[in-house]
Amino acid sequence: MQLKWGIAGVGMIAHDFLTALDTLPPEQHRVVAIAGKDVDRVQRLATLHKINTAYEGYEQLARDASIDIVFVSVLNLQHYEITKLMLENDKHVLCEKPMGMTYKQTKSLVDLAREKGLFLLEGMWSRFFPAYDALEKHITTGGLGEVYHINVQFGVQINDIERNLMKDLGGGAVLDLGVYMLQLINFIYKEPPVDVVCTGHLSKTGVDESVSCALKYKDGRTATMAAQTRATMTNKAEIIGTKGTISLEYFWCPTVLHISAANSTEWTLPKGKYKFHFHNSAGLSYQIQECWDCINKGIVESPKMSLDESILLSKLTDTMRAQLGVLESEL
User: Do the record's keywords include Transferase (predicted)?
Assistant: First the structure.
């Protein structure tokens, strides 16, 4: 089966996605059209990546009958509206995270996809890295004993102009960085926390520019997470169990799993034809392949990143943003 892709959005992630897709078998994946609001940028990406059809705006992409699945990589604020448009036009969708800005939006998209029997996946690309499979195997076979604490940090230094823009783009420490930490914690504990306590700082425009959270789980388990836009942090996760600790570097896109001095595994990412904008973006190919694997088997939800989990994560990010004072106007 050849999956025919449409691309909605022409930002840096769209370029990285197309470059990663190009490393996969052409008999399984083909990009047939790309769409965006800035027609010059659409044409530029279409030319670079040899895509035959370029649309201005998203309506024509949604109505293009040759497309099976659409990758939605527009601004966070538009994820809901564009994903909804594609689902209404019977397209499968892979949507960049966060799928919706709020629980309400996310739940509505999940309900629509389920009602129409369409494949929908929130682009939590971390989940599809082989290191995550190996980590899960190590934990489930008792390698760490009982896991009692997870500590995650994610900080990237961005300037004031970008920080102020975050409001208009639907960004912020929780939605841009926090979801990555939450998905890892949830990947390991596999259930929602019983309590969440967050604090942090808002910028002058009301965007969360930092967040620190403590999460309490059943059976004596806890987690802490911190995101920061004013300073670069260690950007790693520590998973602490009764038999030891695993430190996961670049936890959102890891290519190394270091279990002990004698037990370390490294995976090589595919080489792209063009330079990637973001760290380890070649690993987007794992997520693209997951779409093919599921659709080929007639599965409409990825077992590695279920829609119920997307709903749970959106509830948690709502809670966090509300505690920080970001959400009053949105809920």
Answer: no
